Amino acid sequence: MTTAPPRRIAHLDMDAFFASVELLRYPELRGHPVVVGGGSRHQPVTLADGTRKFSRLRDYVGRGVVTTSTYEARAFGVFSAMGMMKAAALAPDAFLLPTDFDSYRRYSRLFKAAVATIVPHVEDRGVDEIYLDLTDHPDDTRTLGMKLKAAVKEATGLTCSIGIAPNKLLAKICSDLEKPDGLTIVSYDDVPVRIWPLAAKKINGIGPKAAAKLAALGIETVGQVALADPKLLQEHFGLNYAEWLRRVSHGHDERAVVTTHEPKGISRETTFERDLHAKHDREALSEIFTRLCTRLADDLERKRYAGRTVGLKLRYADFRTVTRDVTLPAPICDAAAIRRAAGECLRRVPLEQRMRLLGVRVSALVPIEEAGARVVPVQRDLFEES
Ligand code: TTP
Ligand code: MG
Ligand code: MG
Q: Which positions does the site annotation Substrate discrimination cover (predicted)?
């Protein structure tokens, strides 16, 4: 039998993420119970003397839910997804802040970029967590864990918790064991002592329904799942899920860390219904060109990128294809700027022949937050009326 070499997988999760980002700009709230989840009417007001006036949970009226809370608020029993009115009854003095997703996304990119400078194998798991494959890194596990935490702190001012284990399943469970600011390392040998006493629902994949079904069978902990009669599990959960339960309860998981690559470029192209000529079909071409650039700008906006290089692709009626590109001093993402740059490229291609396809591409991408992208005024190009 061949056994795969042991792996070192990390799961990193930011501590009270949205709330911690808010505390960076309202440091006077540090140490207090704070809840994020309000709307714009809960925006703090700066008073004449420079101090800020914050909303309190007790004044909340409405049907909103808690997005997240600081650990001080959690001490009162206030957690994510709890109704705000219920939270107000538990922690009336807690401060309430509106959500600001743009900021959270910006910090999300920052911590991921910081980690990527140390470990290139990063799997994105949403706004505040990632998996890393540390197997090939020369540092010993604890040193590396400390390095990662320091890099995140340095880049964002925020703390995170990291679990390091032989696989994703265990790493994910571990990152939660010593929150906040935790670093938890477990091996297969630690499974009976550290993992078996945990509630079965701590396993990613045992949802509320399965947990309730297990509880009905008297199975509450991971250890009880591991020691349960396989036949009983099969009877209630089917062969596949029962087999999966058996494996995960023993801490086994073979899933690979799937590295997510930033796209190199984003493009849009269109083949015309009939071949068009730069001069005779100028109006139609102009409209198509503008629409392409608008769609591309929408794609960039949705994927949150801006780019410095704009490329143009043209296919002639005889199927010859030409491309041109231009690199700008700063990244752009808006339709007008893309159209202007692509228009510049257009000046550099011969336009005597009819065309069958037009494409526009933006590359040399950077996250939109890092681009400081500006709107550049439109300049007329060859397809436009003068
Ligand atoms: P989590 O990592 O689950 O929670 P957290 O970072 O706030 O706290 P912890 O220290 O326990 O990790 O979620 C990350 C962010 O996602 C959280 O700050 C807010 C958001 N979120 C929601 O919007 N709704 C939810 O139900 C949960 C759980 C999180
Ligand atoms: Mg978190
Ligand atoms: Mg998380």
A: 18
Report CA 85 to chain centroid distance, whole Å. 29
> How many structural domains does the chain have?
4
Domain presence at residue 257: no
Are 92 and 107 within one domain? no
> For ligand 1, is residue 13 a contact (CB within 6 Å)?
yes
The pLDDT of residue 170 is above 90: yes
CA distance 241 to 233: 8
Does one domain contain both 130 and 188?
A: yes
CA distance 323 to 309: 13
Parent domain of 231: 198-249
Block residue for tokens 């004044």: 59
Percent of the chain with pLDDT over 90: 87
| 270 φ, ψ (degrees, to nearest 5) | -145, 140
Question: Which residues, by Cβ under 5 Å, contact ligand 2, an ion?
Answer: 13-14, 17, 128
Instruction: Give the type of residue at 355.
Output: M
Q: Provide the whole-model pTM.
A: 0.73
One domain, residues 180 and 210 = no
Place of tokens 């997510």: 260
Give the annotated binding-site residues. 13, 128
Same-domain status, 179 and 210: no
Residue of 22, 123, 129, 369 with catalytic role: 129
Tell me the per-residue pLDDT of 238-281, one tens digit each, with 9 for 90 and over.
999 999 999 999 999 999 998 866 678 999 999 999 999 999 99
